[in-house]
Amino acid sequence: MIETVRPGVTAEQAKVVIFDFDGTLSLIRSGWIDVMVPLCVEQLASCGSKESETELHAVVDEFVWRLTGKETIYQMMALADAIAERGGNPLAPAAYKKMYLDRLWLKIRDRIEDLRAGRVSPDAFLVPGARALLEDFSARGLRLYLASGTDDANVKEEAALLGVAPFFEGRIFGAQSPISAALTQAGLSITSAASTSYNAR
């Protein structure tokens, strides 16, 4: 889906283009939401809040979608908040992130390994038209940047596996650990930040 933020505005003088990665260029992690949502519902259900599975799904869907596009840890912070609100004792958000990534790896492992071994064409896991778009923008002399909420090392490897890394000439940026200098500057750790509600907007 394409969102036109300012109808009628031209990009004729554009010099820079910033791309998201998962779902915009890459299909490697397609299906991630089918891993994250059940994990979060499972953790909330363990609190014994007497909410139905449908109600818990609605809670999880809200914060997962609201925080999509930010670093994964923010969704895990929201999960920790939701657990605490139901009287549970949440783990550090980083622990939930590890659970999620471990489960996601089971889903995407064969895709990554097939790409590493050259058993599948990179185009099989590129969004249709993505390579042509990158080629066109590069030919026009635009500087391309890639910014992703996926961990930095992973997004760089996956961009390389898909053969799109050269278009960005090193300008690929993923989630860092710790997640944000802002938390450090505020004197907060990921664990302590779990008790605070985060809003993506």
Short structural description:
With 201 residues, the protein is mainly alpha-helical. The protein has nine helices and three strands; from the N terminus they run βαααααβααβαα.
Topology:
Layout: E1 16-19, H1 33-45, H2 53-67, H3 72-85, H4 93-117, H5 130-139, E2 143-151, H6 152-161, H7 165-168, E3 172-175, H8 181-185, H9 190-193
Parallel strand pairs: 1-2, 2-3
Helix pairs in contact: 1-2, 2-3, 3-4
Protein described:
- The chain has one domain (16-193).
- Strands 1-2-3 form a 3-stranded parallel sheet.
- The longest helix is centred in the middle third of the chain and has 25 residues, at 93-117.
- Helices cover 50% and strands 8% of the residues.
- Helix 1 (33-45) crosses helix 2, helix 2 (53-67) runs antiparallel to helix 3 and helix 3 (72-85) packs antiparallel against helix 4 (93-117).
- It has 9 helices and 3 strands; from the N terminus they run βαααααβααβαα.
Using only CA atoms, what is the Rg? 19 Å
Strands of the largest sheet, in order across it? 1-2-3
- How far apart, in Å, are the first and last alpha carbons? 20 Å
Percent of residues in β-strands: 5-15%
The low-confidence parts are: 179-201
Per DSSP E runs of 2 or more residues, the count of β-strands stands at 3
Number of helices: 9
Q: What is the H/E string?
A: EHHHHHEHHEHH
Largest sheet: 3 strands, parallel
User: What is the typical, i.e. mean, pLDDT?
Assistant: 87
Query: How many structurally independent domains?
Result: 1
